[in-house]
Amino acid sequence: MTRRNGATLIEVLVAIFVMGIGLLALLALFPLGAINMAQAIKDERTALAAANAQAVVEARNIRRNGTITAAFTSPSALHLPASPDGPSYPVYVDPIGSLSYVAPYFQWVGGDVKGIPRRSVSFVNAANPTLDIMKWFSLGDDITFAEDGTPDLGTGEIQREGRYSWAYMCRRPMNSATHVVDITIVVYAKRPLTVANALQPDEQAYTATFDPSRNVVRLTWAASQLPPPIRNGSWILDATTVVSPVDPTKLAPGHSAFYRVVGITEIDPNNMDLEVQTPLKGFPLPAPTPAAQQYTGTVIVMEGVAEVFERVHGWIP
Question: How far is 52 from 64, CA to CA, in rounded Å?
Answer without folding.
Answer: 19
